[in-house]
Amino acid sequence: MTPTTTPAPAKAFTPQDFHSGLIVRWCPGCGDYAILAAVQKVLSERGKAPHEYAFVSGIGCSSRFPLYMSTYGFHSIHGRALAVATGVKAAAPSQEVWVITGDGDCLSIGGNHFIHALRRNQDLKIILFNNEIYGLTKGQYSPTSRKGLVNKSAPYGVIDEPANPLRLALAAGATFVARTADNDMAHMTEVFRRAAAHKGSAFIEVLQNCVIFNDKVFEEYYGVKTRKDTLIYLHDGQPLLYGKTVERGLRLDGFSFSSVEASGEAKIHVHDEHESTGALANALAGLTHPDYPVPLGVFRQVERPAYHELMYEQVDAARKAYGEPDLAKLLKGPKTWTVS
Amino acid sequence: MSTVTEDGILGNTERHEIKELDSVTILFAGDSGDGMQITGSQFTDASVVFGNDISTFPDFPAEIRAPSGTLAGVSAYQLHFSNHDIRTPGDRVDTLVAMNAAALKKYLPELEKGGILIADKSGFGPNELKKVDYASNPLEDGSLSEYRVVQADITAQTIAAVKPAGLTGRNAERCKNFYTLGIAYYLYDRPLEPTFDEIRKRFAKKEPVIAEANIAAIQAGYNFAHTIELFKVTYRVRRAVFEPGTYRNISGNLATAMGVAAAASRSGRKVFFGSYPITPASDILHELSRLKHFGVLTFQAEDEIAAVASAVGASFGGILGVTCSSGPGIALKSEAINLAVMTELPLVVIDVQRSGPSTGMPTKTEQADLLMALFGRNSDSPIPVIAPATPGECFECIYEAARVAVKYMTPVMFLSDGYLGNGAEPWKIPDAAALKAFNPSWGLDPAGFKPYARNPDTGARPWVPVGTPGLNYRTTGIEKAENSGGISYDPENHQRMTKARFDKVAKIAQEIPATPVFGAQEGDLLVVSWGGTYGATLTAAETVFAQGKKIGHVHLRWLNPLPPDLGSILKRYKKILVPEINVGQLAYHLRGTYGIPVESYARIRGKAFTVGELVTAYHAQLPQGA
Ligand code: SF4
Fold first, then answer.
1. Sequential DSSP letters for B262-307
2. Which residues, numbered 133 to 162 in chain A, qualify as contacts with chain B under a Cβ-Cβ cut-off of 8 Å?
3. Is the CB of A27 within 6 Å of ligand 1?
4. Chain A closest-CA separation from residue B385 CA (Å)
């Protein structure tokens, strides 16, 4: 890729400073454009220069993303972005590493790496572009496609149960789990800001519209006109309220939520991102349209040491215990004999 | 107390004599739980410290706890020790230690006629005999009359011997391998003290009772053999003459791990080691996990693909990525290796080959991944391939692999095998300070920086540590334009970039010194070998050359690129023979590369060549009566 000169760190950055100059080649109207703009906006506010970031991706429409950034970038192979990023972070622990992935890349071919990166709390900001379809290979169903969807590889309808990315992330022990939507710039930037500030794995599902192969798949509930009634925005420490006139809320009944009138007596649940078991985040992640409002925002945020910190702690401890490495001593080992 | 059965040759009243031998092969075999690997390695250490040359071959079952007393559960350790330079664990066994009927059944065919068999009678009960289909007890039915059989109830004697140390029951019985070791020490006149010291060092603090019991068992076995004159003749193998220097005993996997640590320590950058456990390569991960202070970041990945992909990521990040596996794992890694080929990042891929295909025989050796290493990836994907010849050479070769990977910005495949990885030999310790330097900094000036510019000497592109101001660049597995590295679908550019990747690997030939040829420098037959068959193929060539035949021997370290002088060497002989533990992969490669006829001697049995069979194979290619 063409190298870009990085401005001095003291300078305030503009979103444009984070653009590589390469012409962006997603389909006109693709949700990816908005996500790119949101990321560039958030990075420009953070005071770090482009060279302090690395963007890693696999293969898919969304995976072209790093090529459009002026940061360090690695567009790798299908499904392996999280594994590659793990190595990048280990090699360059002060680098801020973001991973761009899609529903096929992350949950299908890369499913194993997804579980293990989150389990280890790799310090990676992971944006999953979920369009519930394979775009780059031209329209086959993906692991998040809904049952019954008819397309090229499922002419009689999809029979697979769709995967729930948030529930998978929570089960894997992710320390930051959020959802946002490509048609809501303000919400996206806010979620990305939170993710950037999180230490450890930050997993964000973005509902991303593929205008070509799965157009308007989220429209029923994230459409601008109706979304106040069909989405619920999560705010830490705030009651789970929604509706045009904030007339409804979510009440906790046993292990699941019920949607109820938000009258004075109703015990509307107060959202707690830090709830230690993750059970409530899991219950929220299970809410689907049309029975429930679909939650957007941060489901869970807890603190746990990041993997690279533990890795380097061990290296430092070994250095302390054994001193500077002595190669000659290592080669000799415990038992030698000399022939003269 | 047990009885000792003499087999007619041995008499317990005569004074024994000591006979000098040039070399001996001893094989310890027993149930997996009998501790034969420990017995073998203790005997090895004692021989090494004494000053013999040695070569070992541990042979253990794939199952962790195979049913006891079965053939599948037999674990063995073969040791060849001598007063001269040896390179193989021995063709035939002089002394077989069999702790049970299964061990005898499995390894008796390896024992020389007239050889010594030491057997533990308690391992030949009706049950044990039945499990391996012995109709009668071979220790009693006269079927072993061609061997010198020494049998004792080793188990019972061991239990009695360790009682004063305070061990009873199963724990006491477990010391029987040390009792056997004592007998073997007596037979071969080994000093006991070094082993006692070693045991004390290892166990005394944590388990003093075990330490004392083990020592008591060795001493009792030794005394037993001595006082009742178990052997009419005992043997002595004098020190070998080594080149002056300081030596240690080393296995191939340990040498490989130390070579990676050396690369971390000498390159000035850390090394990232991504690996997933697999037989017979896991020991390298174990060793390196203890060497973090050398700047080795070990990462036990969730699978083989993550292991290599994280290593490629680390190389992009700016430190050398290394990954390690055996054949089945390497197959899984091929796509990510190609990512390193395409993005031109350094990477070292360690393949400790094992018998296949598929799961094959995981604990048995083979050198059948050569063509996979050379060609087993999609599209035109050149990769340098290096193969160590001996356990000790694993150190030098892995260091060279790392250095070349960085210098030429390419993945390098390192082909070891189970035989080298687990086998051990005395190793002259190299001078750490004399290791060649790494010099990765090239092309890193932000003014005019081009991520895919090429160093005219090596063809390598610059290696940028991620985070360097002014050098932020993007890379991809998509074809890139020359110099700028931007995505390019231009047909002519693809042709040029493909050629540039091949030229870069071809340039590594400048790292290869002139190829030494053993024996006849021209003539009737040239034997060409590679990898772990070095010891056997060369020893056989020495034998045939000493018989006056016009035979030469060349051993290849680099398989890609091949040494630049190899073509002209091949032309000087009437026939070329390649012995390999595969169906003839190098032979195939040489035919394709040089367009000449090449004979193949292929044996695929999961074990190393014997010198004897190679001598016969060489003769078969030589003119009769010449
Ligand atoms: S195919 Fe769909 S996801 Fe891919 S770029 Fe086009 S609109 Fe976007």
1. HHHHHHSS-EEEEE---TTTHHHHHHHHT-GGGTEEEEE-SSHHHH
2. none
3. yes
4. 23
- The maximal CA–CA distance of chain B, rounded, in angstroms, is 91
Tokens found for residue B236: 């002595």
Which ligand 1 atom is at minimum distance from the Cα of A135? 1
Domains observed in chain B: 17-237 (3.40.920.10), 248-434 (3.40.50.970), 518-621 (3.40.50.920)
Per-domain residue ranges of chain A:
15-217+304-311
| Contacts with B432 (C-beta within 8 Å, 6 or more apart), sequence order | A327, A328, A331, B262
- Which segments in chain B show pLDDT lower than 70? 1-16, 625-626
Whole-number Å distance between alpha carbons of B17 and B234: 6
Q: Is A122 on the interface with B (CB under 8 A)?
A: no
Predicted TM-score (pTM) of the model is 0.90
Q: Of A6, A75, A331, which is closest to B474 when you measure between CB atoms?
A: A75
Per-residue tokens: A37 = 């703009």
Determine the Cα–Cα distance for residues A19 and B394; give it in Å rounded to an integer: 47
A90 to chain B, any CB pair closer than 8 A? The answer is yes
The Cα B497–Cα B461 span in angstroms is 12
Give the whole-angstrom CA distance, residue A85 versus residue A99. Answer: 7
pLDDT digits 0-9 by tens, A243-290: 999 999 999 999 899 999 998 778 999 999 999 999 999 999 999 999
| Ramachandran sector of residue B246 (left: φ over 0; alpha: ψ -120 to 50; beta: rest) | beta
* Helix A32-44 and helix A185-197, axial crossing angle in degrees, nearest 10: 50
CATH 3.30.450.70 describes domain A15-217+304-311: no
Please give the sequence-ordered ranges of beta strands (E in DSSP) within B472-621, or none if there are none: 474-476, 518-519, 523-530, 551-556, 558-560, 573-580, 599-602
Q: Which of B200, B221, B245, B249 is nearest to B50 (CA)?
A: B249
Which one, of B252, B256, B463, lies nearest residue B349 by Cα?
B256
Please report the ipTM that was assigned to this predicted complex. Answer: 0.95
Other Cβ atoms within 10 Å of A274 Cβ, number: 11
Pocket test residue of A33, A61, A128, A140 for ligand 1, highest count of atoms within 8 A of CB: A61
Quick one: which of B220, B541, B509 has its CA closest to B385? B509
Which spans in B508-577 are helix H? 534-546, 566-570
The residue of B345, B476, B483 whose CB has the most chain A CBs within 10 angstroms, and thus the best one to mutate to test that interface, is B476
